[in-house]
């Protein structure tokens, strides 16, 4: 799996992960009440995940990786890029662990209302958010065990020189990066966040 690393002028690292095309999982319509409930949470997560922060979705996709090819600016040492990546993974794991626990507790309190008729947003939305944090946490933890390779990419230098705050100046470079590394649309990502 490919990972692009951009550095802003303040030294912050921003990551963009290769697109993951997976077949849809089999629906869990029949079976026990727990299976039906789980199916509804998974379905809600799939419908809402595009509204979640890119970094959370990226971490969730990392759980599918077998190897991570990291591409960075030419002037950076691979040791610094690796240090930034591991720092990001540790911080993300802590953050998503905390929010997973918070959202799971809120969903637990909301589950008290499940017998009432109508949509139970006090259960389902926190349960969906807990699932998102769980997957991000799982992806960050999985990434620590991956074998990493580091390579310099001159196109990343051109994007960084133009400034990450105005990506309209480097549309051609972004398109080349998207095609070369099977990336989502880079100009829509939160690489400046």
DSSP strand count: 4
Low-confidence stretches: none
| Helical/strand content category | alpha/beta
Give the oligomeric state: single chain
Q: Give the tally of structural domains.
A: 1
| Strand order across the largest sheet | 2-1-3-4
- The overall pLDDT, averaged over residues, is 88
Any chance you could write out the topology, listing elements then pairs?
Elements: E1 2-7, E2 13-17, H1 33-48, H2 54-62, E3 67-72, H3 78-110, H4 121-143, E4 147-152, H5 154-162, H6 171-181
Parallel strand pairs: 1-3, 3-4
Antiparallel strand pairs: 1-2
Helix pairs in contact: 1-4, 2-4, 3-4, 5-6
Structure summary:
The protein is an alpha/beta fold and 193 residues long. It has helices at 33-48, 54-62, 78-110, 121-143, 154-162, 171-181, and strands at residues 2-7, 13-17, 67-72, 147-152.
Question: Could you walk me through the main structural features you see in this protein, from its secondary elements to its overall organization?
Answer:
With 193 residues, the protein is an alpha/beta fold. It has one domain. Helix content is 52%, strand content 12%. It has helices at residues 33-48, 54-62, 78-110, 121-143, 154-162, 171-181; strands at residues 2-7, 13-17, 67-72, 147-152. The longest helix is centred in the middle third of the chain and has 33 residues, at 78-110. The protein is elongated.
């Amino acid at each position: 799996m490919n990972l692009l690393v951009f550095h802003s002028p303040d030294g912050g690292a921003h990551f963009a992960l290769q697109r993951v095309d997976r077949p849809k999982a089999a629906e869990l319509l029949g079976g026990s009440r727990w299976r039906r409930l789980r199916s509804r949470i998974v379905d809600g997560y799939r419908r809402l995940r595009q509204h979640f922060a890119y970094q959370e979705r990226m971490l969730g996709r990392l759980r599918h990786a077998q190897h991570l090819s990291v591409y960075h600016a030419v002037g950076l040492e691979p040791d610094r890029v690796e240090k930034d990546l591991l720092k990001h993974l540790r911080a993300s794991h802590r953050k998503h662990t905390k929010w997973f626990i918070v959202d799971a507790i809120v969903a637990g309190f909301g589950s008290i209302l499940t017998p009432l008729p109508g949509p139970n947003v006090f259960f389902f939305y926190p349960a969906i958010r807990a699932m998102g944090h769980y997957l991000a946490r799982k992806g960050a933890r999985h990434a620590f065990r991956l074998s990493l390779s580091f390579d310099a990419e001159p196109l990343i230098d051109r994007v960084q020189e133009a400034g990450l705050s105005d990506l309209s100046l480097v549309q051609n470079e972004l398109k080349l990066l998207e095609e070369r590394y099977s990336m989502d649309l880079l100009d829509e990502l939160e690489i400046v966040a």
